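Hi again,

Forgot to attach this to my earlier email, sorry! This is the prediction with zinc ion bound. I've pasted everything inline since the attachment limit keeps bouncing my files.
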Amino acid sequence: MAADLRCPACDRTYDAGPDEPWRCDCGHPLEFATRPLPDRPAPDFAELDTRDGLWAFEEFLPVRRLVSLGEGFTPLVDADDWDAQFKLDCVFPSGSFKDRGATVTLSRAAELGVETVLEDSSGNAGAAIAQYAARADVDADIYVPADAKQSKLAAIERAGATPVRIEGTRQDVTDACIDAVESGEGWYASHAWNPAFFAGTQTFAFEVAAQRDWSVPDAVVAPLGHGTLFLGAYRGFRALSDAGWTDAMPRLLGVQAAGVAPVAADLHEGSDAERNDVADGIQITDPARGDQIRDAIEATGGDAIALDAASTRDSLDALHRSGFYVEPTSAVAVAGLRAYRERDVLDEDADVVVALTGSGLKS
Ligand SMILES: [Zn+2]
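Structure tokens for the complex follow:
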């Protein structure tokens, strides 16, 4: 039985099924009605079967493993030049952390018997959904901006998904995709709205904690657009704590692109800087789960800041010269680590994990 859905804002519930709504009647994003937790103590690392990849943590997931490419257990490595640990979420079948969400979302689609999935993205999420749809043998329509670069569409087209080009702004692309969902053309496999996607990105936290023998870092620094990884990490660390597998929560520190930084602008004055087009993967003006992002920051003593193109580019160069071949948007988190230390948000000796979210091979 596939898990039912519930609205955290108004408590309405919805039965699972291929025609389930993509959001609540009240407008809020939906969650799963149940949140599974293991009823055993944390296992030793050697007891985890890492051949299962991130599905080694299936007992935390409200979805059965049906569609997988062996993803997960990305490396956690020391980055001495930055006095931090980097979680290499650039090491995935489609080249980004979005595979964490895509494997769970397409598994959910398979549970429900969905025939066509829809997504709007021109970048990593579109490629991840296209590849996992191919693995699941379901159709995928990926809505993209009309001016999306052909190089970004290649992974979508080669996987057999259909790019649907939409003129206008990024919001126009989302609106066109939602119109298609509401007119019955398919199930919305959105990395911003679908709760299965966030169930998947929780596994970032499970892996980090397991790889550190269940010690939680003082802080996690991650890029922040729709909060797909940021919220997933929060939920994962919360679930570990609720299961008694860990005994602390990390501070969640987000880094946004200057000029398109709604969360940072709420927390700090003067965020009207020149637009950072280097970190183009996180230019989201109105995140679907903005209230939940703000709650996660408040609950963990976290923060969000906006950084400019120059500091992002400097960090990208430094990463590449150190062997970390990531895409430009990933570099904003590393630039953020430096900025958080300079602003004394982080102590010099703070134990920090930074997420490197996407490979440079596609960019
Ligand atoms: Zn509601």
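The chain has a mean pLDDT of 96. Residues 7, 9-10, 12, 24, 26, 28 surround zinc ion (CB under 6 Å).

That should be everything now.

G.
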